[in-house]
């Protein structure tokens, strides 16, 4: 087994713990640095380091606060497991440079998924992380003109979609598509737009038919975009081999 895989797993778990803090604090406008230590949202007690070990502490404490017995949401464990396993997957299927870029993408997408589902906003932290990943990928791949043009065209197309749909598509979604263009280039961008649209329709249509969603309901589309971009990014060599 390659030595990076367990390292990426641990890194994913630690960053997953930090992502949980961001998911809680960013939409509530609580500073990331203050309070410095994590506190239980129910009893306010500072959580000691040994109760704050990613994945393990949740299992040892059986998902409850040691002091007040408050049930810690499932999300904490899911985020840490998801990030550690996807970081490990990245390092297993990609080279080191690409695994770092793919892992930045995982961090951004996990963060925006949980924030967008609950608050209907895409955090700037996710947007800027994908932007940096896109700039790195563009520089390393040398496809500067192709990727910059993809980002620009994608932005213009989705600004148009936003206008035609009378703001049915959020500005956060438009920005997210545009920075993803920088990361993916033209061909893979087309794939990821298809994947985002199809997966979005497959999930949203049954809810609409059941009457849970009206035509004018706002739909958190960010997770569909983010996960499609991630899938296409890790499969891009395979996709290119199919076409060329
Ligand atoms: Zn507590």
Q: What is the makeup of the main sheet?
A: none
Coarse shape: globular
Mean pLDDT across residues: 92
Bound ligands, named by name, code or SMILES: zinc ion
Distance between the termini: 31 Å
Counting structural domains, the number is 2
Beta content = under 5%
Low-confidence stretches: none
Number of helices: 9
Protein topology:
Elements: H1 4-25, H2 56-60, H3 75-93, H4 96-119, H5 124-141, H6 144-164, H7 171-209, H8 222-234, H9 236-243
Report on this structure:
The chain has helices at residues 4-25, 56-60, 75-93, 96-119, 124-141, 144-164, 171-209, 222-234, 236-243. It is mostly helical and 244 residues long. It starts with a helix and ends with a helix. It has nine helices and no strands. The structure holds zinc ion.
Features:
244 residues, mainly alpha, 2 domains, 9 helices, 69% helix, binds zinc ion
Summarize the structure.
The chain is mainly alpha-helical and 244 residues long. 69% of the residues lie in helices and 0% in strands. The protein is globular and about 55 Å long.
